[in-house]
Structure formats: structure tokens, C-alpha cells
Amino acid sequence: MKMYNYDYIIVESENHFAKYLLKKGFKNVILYLHNDKLNAKIKNADFILENALEIWTVSEYLKDCVITINPSLETKVKVILNGIDIYPFQCIKKEKA
């Protein structure tokens, strides 16, 4: 990636790529986790948590896993629940002619 002025770079569940970007000097990196790939047992987890702008998870369970790295950085970890707007998928009753 070239060093452009990005607003944010959102990395989907790839710790290695997030670490790569952070080491290259990108500051607005957000790691969005859909699974338990970042916890106290993961190599370089502390570097990622300390240097990422935020960590987003899809559940409180995953947030708790991330917080095991450094509980004092809990404010950097946010939960964004998966969701679907079901309105477009509702049946539309046709009026009788």
C-alpha cells in the first residue's frame, strides 16, 4: 500500500496485515475481528492493540478475549454487532384487482 492520506484503513480479521500496516507507519488502522484471532496468546498482540486506532469485534465474548492482552486499553475495543435490515426482504401483499 502506498502512503496516501487515508481516513481509515479497516482490516478484516487479519492480524498479520494489521501489524504490517502499523509497522509501515499507518496510524488510522482499525482491526475488525469476526473470530478469536487477537488475545494474550497471540504473537505481537500487544503491539497491535497498542498501535491500532481501534479494535472492533462482533461480540462481547471477542471483546473480552482482546482485553486479556492489556485491560488498561479496553476503551480501544468496541463491539459492533452483525445485523441485517430485514425490511427489504418482507413479502409484499398484492392488492386484489
Detailed description of the structure:
This protein is α/β, with parallel strands linked by helices. 25% of the residues lie in helices and 16% in strands. It contains three helices and four strands. It has a four-stranded parallel β-sheet, covered by helices on one side. Helix 1 links the parallel strand 1 and strand 2. The protein is extended, with a radius of gyration of 18 Å. The mean pLDDT is 91.
Please sum up the structure shown.
With 97 residues, the chain is α/β, with parallel strands linked by helices.
Rg estimate, integer Å: 18 Å
Helix content: 10-25%
The count of β-strands is 4
Biggest pleated-sheet summary: 4 strands, parallel
List the helices and strands and how they pair.
Blueprint: E1 9-12, H1 15-23, E2 29-33, H2 45-51, E3 54-57, H3 60-67, E4 77-79
Parallel strand pairs: 1-2, 2-3, 3-4
Helix pairs in contact: 1-2
Highlighted features:
4-stranded parallel beta sheet; single chain; 97 residues; alpha/beta
